[in-house]
User: What shape does this take?
Amino acid sequence: MMQFVVLRVASNKEDQVREKLERKVRIEGLKSDDEGKPGVVGRILVPSEKVRTMKGGQRRESTRKLYPGYVFIEMELEPDGRIPDKVWFVVKE
Assistant: This one.
C-alpha cells in the first residue's frame, strides 16, 4: 500500500524540486512504467489551486500553493514504516 511522505523544501522551489525528483526517479527506474511494472514511487505532488482576483477592474487568474515549502511523495514504505534505502538516496540528493 502506497502512502504519502512529506518533504520540506525551500519556499518557491517546490516545482523545481518536483521536476528534479521526477527525473531522478524515472532514471533510477523507481517509478511504475506504462507496461504495468509496479514501482516504489507513485505521484510527486505540489498541491495548488487556481485563484481569481479583481484588480483595477480586470480579472486575474493565478495559482496559489496550498502548502508552500512542501512536496508530497507517494511511495511504498518498508513494512516497519521506513523509507526504502534506494528511494532515500534519490530524495536526499
